[in-house]
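Worked Example 4.2. Read the sequence first, then its structure tokens.
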Amino acid sequence: MTRKLFTDEPYLQECEAEVVEVNDRNGIVLDRTVFYATGGGQPGDSGVMVLASGEEIAIATTVYNAGRSKIVHVPATPSPLPAPGEKVRLKLDWARRHAHMRIHTGLHLLCAVLDYPVTGGSIGKGKGRLDFDIPEAGLDKEEIASKLNALIAADLPVSSRWISDEELDARPKLVKTMSVQPPRGAGRVRLISVEGCDLQPCGGTHVARTGEIGRLTVPKIEKKGGKNRRVRIAFAK
């Protein structure tokens, strides 16, 4: 299995690693990584892999293998590939990752402002969205943005901890997503806590305090079906 350093150290920007394998699509699997793999609506990280020779491979994205036990680093262009056992160094595109962390944490605040079941979501460049199961419309963009920015200004601490699968099963209301359940089978599930505001299972990367998010806007609210409302957030310009 690839050791996911980003789970407990989201601010770690570089690491040394060893090549485990190169798959038939030239994806590179390492024994450990700081690169977040695509999942939970958050894009996979990009950056640079430096080979023992000093040559660099631009990494376009990072994904899980079919069994989700290994993380695959996908080169942006055809490149000289490392051999199994070779030592490499990873350098994260930190500006891109940090923006994802800020938006992802902002989406947790959106869950606190709109306490409805979540039917979907995604994170993009400087923006993100959640879909909510809301039977009636009438959501106000300015009101939502005001509540979000109040939570950001409060500079609340954000932390993570682990609970067992059994504990999560005993507290089903922790799971706010309707379509995607937290992965079980490893014996434990990671919870993200925004102090006094939000608590839910999540495998993504987040900032340490809400003040780090920066001001957000709510540029658009869309009706997606009879009960589905899509709420978009973005960094204020």
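Now turn to a second chain, presented in exactly the same format:
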Amino acid sequence: MSAVRVLVCEDSGVYATGLRRMLEYDGDIEVVAFAATAEEAAAALPGMEPDLLTMDLELPGMDGLRAVEEIMSSRPMPILVLSSYVGPGSDMTSAALAAGALDALAKDDLDLRDPAGMAGAAFRHRVRTLSRARVIRHPRARLGIRPRAPVQGRRASVIGICASTGGPQLLMYLLEALPADYPIPVLIVQHIAAGFTDGLVRWLDQSVALPVRLATQGAMVMTGASLAPEGAHLMLAAGGRLHLDRLTNAGAHRPSGNVLLTSIADAAGSAGVAVVLSGMGRDGAIGAADVRRGGGLAIAQDEQSSAVFGMPKAATELGIDVVLPPAEIAACLLALRHQPLR
């Protein structure tokens, strides 16, 4: 098997050298070039043809966020953000994820002095996985597509969406397609590294017409999009109130897509909608099957557009009404007719 080819965009020579040593430790990853600026990285891509690009966000000249947007618009490829500015105080990393970067990691989480350690091995495993991911161009919704038959005339009280790797870009895509007065509440679980959720919510709220907020305990479900906060399962409870569960273990994730979608099946019945987007693992599959079993609509993203087809594939195996690319998912959501939650 050929080595994974990585292009490193990093303006610190010391950090770039340490990162190369970390990446190449096992012998199956090769750093094919360094770029000190985003402009240099973009110029090197056609000739180098890397499998993955690591991108700092604070760079001289064009910043990393703009670079991610431009690369994902012109020559999409797997991008891993490595930044010192990851965390609750910065929105740039969340914006990069929404623009199409597949993942982001704080530089402080990587001990470049210990490439043989467990953290180094986990990092290289992440790089290998991301290098194989499919990517799509920075999305702009094509709203003229006719939705598939299972959606015609369907009524919905609430939509539940779960996503992981590649999800922020798709959330931007779908929410951007919905008007500010879209009447059906949208509840979202996005698997994302600690410190990113607040910034992702702020970025989405500033970038799309639909109101986007963090879900809060006891709030009535309302129009707009509500994202599960870090470390809490988001559930739709009886009476249309939101419940946050910070204690229950329900598999590998908290928040869990399965927990959200199963609660929608229980609370909304045939007026519930489940959407399972790109991501590793199987989260969301059981919950989507519960929605379908209750008479609701279950949608999975198709393999061709998924960065990682794990979650949509698992949902498809358990039973989905329709498998669609992002543009048709957006068209389906627009075609739904609102039915108030009983």
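Notes for the reader: The chain is about 35% helix and 20% strand. The first strand starts at residue 4 and ends at 9.
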